[in-house]
Specification:
Helix content is about 60%, strand content about 0%. It is an all-alpha fold and about 70 residues long.
């Protein structure tokens, strides 16, 4: 699957660094949070999702159907 990136300011500085890292990466992220606040927000959301899945895991697995 190909992904399209839109990076503004890719001529120099931070924009160029992001572009070069994305092009060189074997797997690029679906979403790239920039800055500590954004990383903390995404990490917090993922932790909350993991906790919710863990809380409901037994019920979720018990609803599986054999095909």
């Amino acid at each position: 699957m190909s992904r399209v990136w839109l990076v503004t300011g890719a001529n120099s500085g931070f924009g160029r660094a992001i572009t070069e890292a994305a092009v060189a990466a074997e797997r690029t992220p679906l979403r790239l949070p920039l800055g500590p606040d954004a990383v903390d927000a995404v990490t917090g959301h993922l932790d909350a999702v993991r906790a919710e899945v863990a809380a409901w895991e037994e019920v979720a697995r018990d609803t599986g159907f054999d095909s």
